[in-house]
Amino acid sequence: MKKKEGRFFLVEKCGGSPGKEEATFNMLVEFKTLPPKKPNTTPKFIIDVYDNKGFAALGRAEKSFTDKDVLDDDAPWQIKDTSGKPLGTLICTVTPIPG
Fold it and tell me: Which domain covers residue 69, as residue numbers?
């Protein structure tokens, strides 16, 4: 997988204890345009979480653009592994920017 500049970040060290790691970071992503409309498809925000040591995928947090709480401040987004098992939580804020 190729890392795209400005679209990833590396958490060097986590706090907490093994199995209950935690990290705090802030990242701003700005979309100049929305994705094109596709029939029967709702666009989503997707955040993939990787182990940087082996660059192995750990899980994914996602919300559709129309999710009822996607615009809530500090909304919990559940990280799930590939089998759908909850792995952790990301606290996210999505703020619309007037056009």
Answer: 41-99
